[in-house]
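User: Working on a comparison across species. This one is PBP domain-containing protein from Cryobacterium arcticum. Can you predict its structure so I can line it up against the others?
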Amino acid sequence: MISKKAIALCATVGVTLSGIALAVPAHAEPVSNSYSIVGSDTLEDVVGALANGSRITGSTVRITTSGSTLGSFDATGSPYITTKASGVRFGRPNGSGDGVKALSRSIDGAAYTSGTVGGPANVTITGQVDIARSSSAGTSNTNGELLYVPFARDAIAYAYKGSASGIGAITPTQMKSLYECSAGFQIGGVTVTPIIPQAGSGTRKDFISKIGVTEASMLTVAEGGCVVEGQEHDATTLTNESVMPMAVSRWVAMNTGASYDKRGTGTLGSLVSGVAPVTGTGTAMVPNAAYYSNGTWGRDTYLVVEFARVDPTNAKYDAKLAALVDPAKVTSLTTSASVLGSQPGAVKKKFGMLAPSSTTPFRVLKTA
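Assistant: Here's the predicted structure for PBP domain-containing protein from Cryobacterium arcticum:
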């Protein structure tokens, strides 16, 4: 029996509880009748599960706002998307950077072109994006038009394929040499191919920063270097004797069945000496809190909104949007509450994510 109090709690920004069934859309990317969410590949599956509805915890969990459903759009798929009823068609935002850029153009009305090949160019998308998923943090600025709200804790490791001695225990220093294409770089006498996510990926940004590489010092094959570009978190693209950055949360979710399985024949490697990124195997796999808490390789992820729309003193204030990203509300997208299977935090755990290290939002300037 669900109490009237529990039902009332879900009325404004709601979570569907076990026994209260909301229809799940027939398509993965429905046109939103409230708020639209784009961006990070790292977060697409877990945010999609919360928006579309999931029973992965044994309870039905779906976050809505005043009974209206959310539209969370994957980073990959068709080259274009339409996020709102009677809205314009524009290029699919692929990755954290592209998602934040789309949100910025939705705010300021400047023309938007996504990083997805084949998508429409220079489209005005005012009001078409409400929230961006980001696996990396922006630079804090007290005058920023954007607000980064902590969503969950993740970590970065790497996936690899091969039998070279030591390929499963590459140090950050070795990774730096590998991604800077040091002549003849080898592991166990075998040349290893470095793979990096597409431009605009938050995982790409975080990974190269943490190993001490810059976009200028990392030369891709297209630039005459050795680094192969590919879609983030798709380990099926690993070739013999190769490595790629991997969000640990995505690896966990692919093992437990929460996400599409793109492991291929890859294996997960650790970038913290003596500490494994995960514990358990298969459907019993879970994040290793000791790895996630590492100051270098653990990372918080974010949902990004326009600051003015969640600022009660601003004329653009939107109470429903503010509630949707308020970590203090157990029915929000950003809550970490996970005591009950019917709470969003429990769903996040199934997708390999833990509570963020901080719940304090911060402001960031719009993307140019």
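For your comparison, note: The domain at 154-292 is CATH 3.40.190.10 (D-Maltodextrin-Binding Protein; domain 2).

User: Helpful, thanks.
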